[in-house]
Design goal:
This protein starts with 5 loop residues before the first helix and ends in a 23-residue tail after the last helix. About 60% of the residues lie in helices and about 0% in strands. The model is unreliable at about 70-75 and about 75-80 (pLDDT under 50). It is mainly α.
């Protein structure tokens, strides 16, 4: 498996974040979009190193919208069991 240097990956990561910003703006989340854009610009404007790559990846993950339906954990719940008081 070929590994790319952070400098090779940063432009694509930054572009993905700008696409996410556009999605947020279309969804009416302008405050969040502005924060994400500012954070991405700050990271992208500094050294193009591993820390920047990790920062952009984290920002991309954090800016993702949560799933439309909440995830309910059924761990530890037995089928057919009912709690009684």
């Amino acid at each position: 498996m070929e590994q790319h240097s952070p400098a090779e990956e940063l432009p694509a990561l930054y572009r993905a974040i700008l696409d996410r910003v556009a999605d947020l703006e279309r969804g009416g989340k302008r405050t969040k979009a502005a924060r994400v854009r500012a954070d991405a610009t700050r990271i992208y404007s500094r050294a193009w190193d591993e820390a920047a790559r990790r920062g952009l990846i984290a920002l991309l993950r954090e800016s993702a919208d949560p799933p439309s339906e909440p995830q309910v954990s059924t761990r530890g719940v037995r089928s057919g069991s009912v709690a009684t008081s």
